[in-house]
Every structure is written in C-alpha cells, then in structure tokens.
Amino acid sequence: MNIETRITHAGLCTDSVTGAISTPIYQTATFRHPAVGVSTGYDYSRTVNPTRQVLENVMADLEGGDRGFAFASGMGAITTVLMMFSNGDHLLVSDDLYGGTYRVLERNFRQLGITVDYVDMTQLESVEAAIIPGHTKAILIETPTNPLMKITDLAKVSALARSKGLLTIVDNTFMTPYLQRPIELGADVVVHSGTKYLGGHNDVLSGVVVTARPELSEKIGFIQNSTGNVLGPQDSWLMLRGIKTLSLRMEKQQQNAAAIAEWLVKNPHVKQVYYPGLPGHPGREIQVKQSNGFGAMLSFRVPDAAWVERIINRVKVITYAESLGGVETLITYPMKQTHGDIPAEIRQKIGVTDDLIRLSVGIEHIDDLIGDLEQAISGGAKG
Amino acid sequence: MKYGTKILHNGNEIDPHTGALSIPIYQASTYHQFDVEHFGKYDYSRSGNPTREALEKTLAALENGTYAYAFASGMAAISSALAILKQGDHIIATEDIYGGSYRILTRFFAKFGIETTFVDMTRLDNIREAIRPSTRALFLESPSNPLLKVTDIVGAVKIAREHNLITMIDNTFMSPYFQRPLDLGVDIVIHSATKFLGGHSDVIGGAVITNSEKLAKDIYFVQNGFGAVLGPQDCWLLLRGIKTLRARMELQQRSALEIAQWLRMQPWVAEVYYPGLPDHPGHHILKEQAAGFGAVLSFATDTVERARQIMKKVKLWSVAVSLGGVESILSYPVKMSHAAIPKAERERLGITDRLIRLSVGLEEAEDLIGDLQPE
C-alpha cells in the first residue's frame, strides 16, 4: 500500500467490537483481569493503553520500524532515547541542534555522566575524527538542521556509525515519514516531536520514537514504562486525527515554502535564504537522494538585525510563536526563542545570529503569505 | 477556611476570562507572542499551559506547598524528582516501596551512578546507619505499599536535616486530604495522581510539590527539559476528580476500616495490615502525623489456594493493578505492583503469594465484604 493510503488509514477501524471508523479514546488508568495471571494484554495504561498503542503502531508502520512509542512531548521522546546510555558514555550530536536538546544534554545528562561533542554532521571526516573509541556510543542527527537547514547524508553517516559499532539516531521532525524514512537509510532509532507536522494543528504536545530492531524496542519500552513519560489517550487520539492529513498538509506546506523561498531570494532586503529546495543549496543533491521533498521550514537573514523586531511586530497573517509544523504559518526568532539556551559564542559559531528569522510555512493562500512578508519586510527595512 | 472547603475554593477553580466554574481545556501547543522583546506568560505548552497551571496551583494549595508540577504519570513524577540528583549521589529508600520505584532506582538510576540503599524505615536508626558521606536524599513511602508500614516522618526529617539530605515522600496512599508532609518538614512530596487525587481510574498522572524555591527550580528544569508533562485533557480530569477528594476519602476510609475489622475475625485470614486498626504497629505514629488512615489495606490468607480462590470468585472487586479509584480494586502484589522486586527480596519483606491488597472504593461495605467471603 502507498504511504498516502497508510497515512490516511491511521487508526482506521481499530475497534473490532463496534466497527467504529475512529479509534476509541480509552480514558482509563487500569484494566480488569479476567482471572489471576490472565491479562487481556492491557494491565495499566502507563504500560500499554489501547489508544496510544494504535498511534504507536501507526508510527512504526510509517517509519518502517520494529516498534513505535509515544511520549508526552518531543523532549520526552529525545530524552528517553538518551536514557538508553549510561554513565561514562559519549555521544556525537549535530552542532546546530534544537536548544531544548542542548539544554538537557548540558545540564542533566552531563551530571549523570554522559558527555557530548557537537559536530558538523555535513562533514563526514569531522564526524569520524570526533569518535572516541570505546566511549562514543551513538550519533544523534537532525537533518535538515534547525534552523539552518543543513543536510546530513544519512546513508553515509549510518554506514560510518555501523562500522564503528555506534547507533545512529535521527530526529525526523522536520521531514516526517511522508518525506523521509531514516530507518530505510540505515538509522537505528527515529525520534519526532509529534507536536509539529505529525500532529499538524498546534493543538497537541507529543513525542514519538521508532526503533529499527527488537533489542532497541525492548530498551526503549523499558524506559518508557519505568520513567512513565507517556502520551495521554486524548492526545494520542488527536495525533491519530492529525496524521490522517499528513500527506495533504506536507504537499501544500512545502509548495508554499518553495514559493516563499524563491520570492525571498529575489527580495533585495533579504541577505540569505536557507531552504534545501533552492538550487545552489549545498545539501540539495543529498536531500533529493534521501528524501521525497524539501519540507516546509526555511530561514533567512536580513542585512540589519534591527529589522528583525520590526518585521516580526509587523506580520499580520503570520503568527509570531514558538513551534512549527502546524497548518498556520509561524515566524520565529531562533536567537531569542528556540535557540535561546545555547551560549552566545556557540550560536555565533554555528550561525544562529541576531539577523536570522525562521519560518514554518502553513497552508494559507500563498498570495496572502507573500503579501504579508512583503509589507512586513519592506516596512521593517524602512524602520 | 477549613481544609475541606479549600479543596473546592483555592483560587484556581474559576476561569478569569468568562467566569466559567470549570477551567477551560487549553488544547494548544504554542502561543502567539504580541511583542518580540516581551514574551507573554505562556510561550509553549511544555513550559507552561493554563489548564496545567490551574491544576498545579491547586495541588500546591492542597499540599500547603508553594510550587507544584504535574507529570504524565506517577512514575514520571518520581523519576523527574530523582533526576535532580547526580552521578555519585546516594539515596536511602523505604524497603517495601512500590515496585515501579524499586525498578527505577535499581535498574535505571543505578546505571547513571546513583546508588540506593533500601532500609526498614519503621526503625529510624536504620536510616541513620545507612547514611554515607555521599548520601544526598531520603525517599520515603508512608504508609508503604503494600504492607502499610508507617514511617515516623518528623523523626526521619530530623535525621535528614542533621545530615543535610533532601527528603522526598510518596504521599499517594494518604493524599493531601489525610497527610500533608510539607507541614512535617519534608522537602518534596510526590503523588501518583492516578490514584486518590484523580479517583476515577480514568487518568494517568503524577505530581511533585515543594516549598523550596531552589528545589522547585531544579524540578521545573527537569519537567521542561525532559518534557514528561501532563496533557491538558488529563489535567482537567484531575481538577474534576480533586473536587470530590474529601467525600471519597472519608467514605472509602470508613469502608476500609469495616473491611479490616471483618477480615481480622475470619479464621482463614492470617494477618491484616491496616494502620487504622489500633494494634497496627504504626497506628499511633500515623495518628500523630496524619488526619486519617486511608483506604488501602492488605491481608494474608492462610493458604495460597485461598488467595487464588478469592481472586477467582470476586465479582464486585475488579482484579486489576492500580488503586484509589471509586471502584474497589483487588490486586495481587507478587504478580502485579511488586513483580519487579526479586522473589527472595519480596519474601523477606513479607510480600508473599498469600498477600492480597485491597483498594476500597465507594460501594457499600456490606456488599464488598459479602463478595470477599470464600466458599
């Protein structure tokens, strides 16, 4: 079956008792046992909840993995994956990663004895050079990166990782399995902030992990159940509802994003545009090879940092808010919002500077979006 | 204001915008910012959500605390509170602790270099003797699960203060209606809100409450960083459940005492564990430090066969894990809540295959007793 069909059929007719088209919301904590030592397969909702389970199965199927796991937030998903490691382990992580991940790595995981080096994953040699034999256990990749849209060659990094006995973990939030399936390219674990494109409506927080193999599933399952970072039934159901329109939304959103990127390139008030679909983007060729699209995230620089505040305060159709991936277009100031927790010198080094604006493009009419950006940017340039 | 009134009127029950007598469910992940320079109170629901905030403030009010945090489950609350510790730290925990807490301490935090010693806290000297230079926290569960052992909380806190340790307590069995450990000097109170706080077996949730600004900052950092937050729908269900906390606790406790008294008269019952019975070894301490004895009790039958027969026969009691709901639940600790504890260790603690745990609900006690009676 094609992925569009599998996406639309997310959670379809899971209730064999009634035949309900929509998955029931099992708002229950516990389950009655038919007899001592006999279980219906459901004992306690932290361990398995039927609504959450449908979502988890859908995600495993879409990512082509062994099992899926749903968490209370994207950070819940990523921290659960990080908890697979132990005191003394070392990890390699994309250097321009989401600020929230940077923060837990530096503050929490470091005090639990896990160390991290941040590397430019687009340079295979620098990845290889950063591996500490015997200590490095995994490579954590975001591709495209947030917010500079750098592309990592997933097949090559996964192959390198495998040859060194390391796990490859890919944050696939920006692409979704509709556009990119890292497990097919050799990744071991896929992570999502389900809050973003999967949910798609800015109305639910969630995280997802999909594992490639049973031994990894067992580890993640143990941590999910033990630390209890689980997604509630109502939110699991909202995720299933959101996923049904994933392919439609992604198509429309990336079509709008491409049009905006092209328009921005031509705008004299814009210094630089970062969108992997643009000809000349350094990662374009790899992106074409490893995924089915370029997504709907883009960033751009303006010549003067003073314009940023004026542009953001001027937008009307576009909403100024943190987060991304929803049907509504959002504008974000990475330096202040998503990447505010990363120290200034590191931000400077990786290029997350005060002249950078990020857009998460939604499904509004393209003329309204470009019109809004036009008035905001030209107004911002005038002062 | 009396405590029973405060449960319903603590300043977090009315929507300030519309006057609605129920807090709206803010099913939003993110929030529009009106100004680049000055962010609003909410920017992202993992960091703050108005429905969750109403719940958190209610929980703080009920525990006589200042700061409260709501989590996706009781275990998320426990693991988030423990995650403020660091590699090399040592914890002393109650020995007959909930199996999930035992599992996370021995199989999860241990691999990050955090070690735990389990002691019988009914004897305070056991705590004192287990203290090492690296000891950083005391983890209490009182009454404990499933043997209802009572720890002298004030005594434990005194030892902790002498050695500069953080005290944490799992207050799930008592709920803040019966026991408010912050008033007794405890630093961090933890709940599986799935149980008595929610009260309807319909929501998984957890809570952490403290008075310390420093600990609150650390816990919030973990809540926001690890993101094990409770969703808005589930927060609203907890707020709804909490409204009847007093009525439920009072009635459930009354039936629990009746059932405990009946059980001890039965020839096929070897032992009854309920701190509300005057000869329970922790009865007097609990009377000092709490306003009630709760609605959870355990009993050991004369034979394994008898225990199994009861579980097979019951109709009103649901054989299930969990506790604290309006429906009475019968569980079998060796197979359920304490399956994660090694057999030899369980046996030593008295968690045998003859032990049955009861969470008494709102049904008529007479019906519940009739349903337990073996043939």
Structure, described:
The complex is a heterodimer of chains A (383) and B (375). With 383 residues, chain A is α/β, with parallel strands linked by helices. Chain A has 2 domains: 3-243, Type I PLP-dependent aspartate aminotransferase-like (Major domain) (Aspartate Aminotransferase, domain 2, 3-Layer(aba) Sandwich), CATH 3.40.640; 247-382, Aspartate Aminotransferase, domain 1 (Alpha-Beta Complex). Chain A is 39% helix and 14% strand. Chain A has 14 helices and 12 strands. Chain A has helices at 3-8, 50-63, 74-82, 99-109, 124-130, 154-163, 176-179, 214-227, 233-243, 246-266, 284-290, 305-314, 344-350, 366-382, and strands at residues 67-71, 90-94, 115-119, 136-142, 167-171, 189-193, 207-211, 272-274, 297-301, 319-320, 330-332, 356-360. In chain A, the strands form 2 sheets. A 7-stranded mixed beta sheet of chain A has the order 1-7-6-5-4-2-3, sandwiched between helices. A 5-stranded mixed beta sheet of chain A has the order 8-9-12-11-10. In chain A, helix 2 packs parallel to helix 9, helix 3 crosses helix 4 (99-109) and helix 12 (305-314) crosses helix 14 (366-382). Chain A is globular and about 75 Å long. The N and C termini of chain A lie far apart (54 Å). The model of chain A has no long low-confidence stretch (mean pLDDT 95). Chain B has 375 residues and is α/β, with parallel strands linked by helices. Chain B is 36% helix and 15% strand. Chain B has 14 helices and 12 strands. Chain B has helices spanning 3-6, 50-62, 74-82, 99-108, 124-130, 153-162, 175-178, 213-226, 232-242, 245-264, 283-289, 304-313, 343-349, 365-372; strands at 67-71, 90-94, 115-119, 135-141, 166-170, 188-192, 206-210, 269-273, 296-301, 318-319, 329-331, 355-359. In chain B, the strands form 2 sheets. A 7-stranded mixed beta sheet of chain B has the order 1-7-6-5-4-2-3, sandwiched between helices. Chain B has a 5-stranded mixed beta sheet with strand order 8-9-12-11-10. In chain B, helix 6 links the parallel strand 4 and strand 5. In chain B, helix 2 (50-62) packs parallel to helix 9 (232-242). At the A-B interface, helix 3, helix 4, helix 8, helix 9 and helix 12 of A face helix 3, helix 4, helix 8, helix 9 and helix 12 of B.
